[in-house]
Amino acid sequence: MNYHKIYEQLMTTGTDAEYKEKHHIVPKCMGGSDDPENLVELSARQHFIAHLLLVKMYPGNHKLIYAANMLTVGTSRSSARTANRRYGWLKEKALEAQKQKEFSEETRLRMRQAKLQQNRVTCPHCNTSGLIGNMNRWHFDNCKHKPGNEGKVNAFAGVMRAHKNSNVVSERGSCPHCGTESTVHYLNSHIPYCTQNPDRKTQKKREQLTCPHCAKVGDATNMKRWHFDNCKFKTS
Q1: DSSP 236
Q2: Which ranges of the chain does DSSP label H, i.e. alpha helix?
Q3: What CA–CA distance (Å, rounded) separates 84 from 56?
Q4: How far apart, in whole angstroms, are the C-alpha atoms of residue 162 and residue 160?
Q5: Structural domain spans, the chain
Q6: What is the pTM of this model?
Q7: How far apart are CA 40 and CA 115, in angstroms?
Q8: How far apart are CA 34 and CA 25, in angstroms?
Q9: Which among 42, 39, 50, 37 has a CA at the least distance from the CA of 21?
Q10: Partners of residue 122 on adjacent β-strands
Q11: Residue 232: CA atoms inside 13 Å, Cβ hemisphere, count?
């Protein structure tokens, strides 16, 4: 299949979609610029296909794989982009590229220097050295050489945690109103608002604002942060 020809046709097709994304015809990692002649507006679907084609055209360029992979991460449109077999193929390519990733000596030196500049402390009981945050959180109170810790067994050894990196034991219980079984941590927030609780609390309604330009109504914080200055009906 002639991926180059398909890519060239896609760059000249254009789109009438309401939502558009700018795409570099010649990728920046390959020497492309931000000049208007090197930019084209594509729909979200076209943009994703364009990056898939670039990966097909230049399979040895890891930066193109990372760029295509980032189009599937963290957006409301990612679910539409990932609902096909190409998503699995792209993830496999990204994993392969990550395994083959090599750092230059200059990059390795910068990484080592950054690591050495992090604050480190030494345990006075066993002389173990580590990052100050990790040592304060995990080591000092649990050091087996600390006086009083002889023969002490970690209280959380083999115990399920409420969540990753937590010191909270995952105690379980059930809601007295609806019978939902879960962790106590979750139930503490569930029970007061349980729909079957006769004394249930109701969440305070958040302030709503209306845009004077398009009459859109939304949460005050979101409207101030995202909408007002960017409303397409704003005249000034």
Answers
A1: -
A2: 3-13, 44-57, 62-70, 78-82, 85-99, 105-117, 132-134, 184-190, 220-222
A3: 17
A4: 7
A5: 3-99, 103-149, 159-203, 205-236
A6: 0.41
A7: 41
A8: 10
A9: 42
A10: 129
A11: 2
> Token pair for residue 187?
């139930």
Please check whether residue 194 is in contact with residue 200, taking contact to mean a CB–CB distance below 8 angstroms. Answer: yes
Token pair belonging to 103 = 């750092």
Q: Give the number of other Cβ atoms within 10 Å of residue 233's Cβ.
A: 10
Question: CB within 8 A of 101, min separation 6: which ones?
Answer: 62
> pLDDT per position in the chain (236 positions), as tens?
899 999 999 998 888 878 788 999 999 999 889 898 999 998 888 888 899 999 999 988 888 988 888 887 765 555 555 555 666 677 777 778 777 777 788 888 888 888 888 888 899 989 998 888 888 888 888 888 888 887 776 555 554 444 444 454 567 889 999 988 888 878 888 888 888 888 887 766 778 899 999 999 888 888 888 888 888 888 86
